[in-house]
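[audit] Reproducing an earlier prediction to check determinism. Same input, same settings, fresh worker. If the tokens differ from the archived copy the diff job will pick it up downstream; this log only records the rerun itself.
[audit] input (369 residues):
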Amino acid sequence: MKSIAEKFTAVIKRYNNILIFIKGSPDPDAIASSYAFKMICEAFGIKSSIIAAVNLSLPQNREFVKVLKIPIKFEKSLSGIEDFDSYAVFDHQSLYVDKLTYKIPCAVHIDHHDFDEEEEREKIDVDFKLINREAGSTSTILALLLKELNLSLEEDIMKNISTALQFGIENDTDNYSHAGKIDYDALNYISEFSDNRIINRINGVPLSNKALKLLGQAIDNQFIYKDWLIAGLGYIDQRNRDLIAIVADFLIKRQDISTVIVFAIIEKEDSSLYLDASFRTNSENINLNSIIKEITLRGGGRKYKGAFQVGLDYFANCPDRELLWKLVKITTVEVLKKRRDRIYVTELRGFYKNFKRRIFGFFRENKDK
């Protein structure tokens, strides 16, 4: 990490004002890692701003930002980019940002997901890129960078950063159930400074009535195919889009299934439509990223979690909403059933990938001894 931290520092010091862009719907991991990066920039005297294009929809996430006073600006269309000389992206497979990429350089891209095939084809230049698939969250990577940088931060600032990063790790590792060694290394460092009372307060925010209603709807409409549970939720307003993932998180707790997919048609404020689906799995051998990429390049996955989106703007003027939903539902279920029928291919890939990782890890550990 020492050489990585040195390169990271050298890169960000080239710039005076960095735009930190949160892609997609802001979740705790993306928010926490973006916030940590902003505070690192401030420690080096570098200006930065966190901007998200999508508003916070979950009560817990709103409380998270409010309690820790995380400065995020929500802008549907980027403006004033001439004030920035570079941008940074965290917790997203692709570093491409409309109206930013190719206009100002990408200084930093840090993530823990598998690579994005579309981005690889575009070959977007980035000064500092760090992808660690062993990490359960991007917050884990930022915590370890923070440890190596050893900055002289005020006590309150360090507490806020550490609390945010801990919540990001907790959220993305499903309350630490999928945390690995690297995540615990990060937690061991930041737990000295973080405030668990704040995290408990955030976690104590109850689910909204809308979330509970959708959960009941999913249970009523669930469809079991082999060991996959598939549930369609109909039409959901863009502001409640994150509830799809929340419903999937609850459904995966069932003992008799390995994978959950929850999907819905999202209605945006401009009346445009898109299909949104969230994946959850209990199997470490299922390569969700591979499964999703076979469906569409507009999405991706990591261990245990994934999501994809498919544009439906052409059907926005369909006069029969019920018929449109029926068409989308039966098509999506059929696509998912076909992926389940050939799941042995991705399971084998996942098995050998994990086997290879364990073998190399074994040799590394013995070499260190």
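[audit] rerun output stored. Observation attached for the diff report: Residues 68 and 361 are 37 Å apart (CA to CA).
[audit] end
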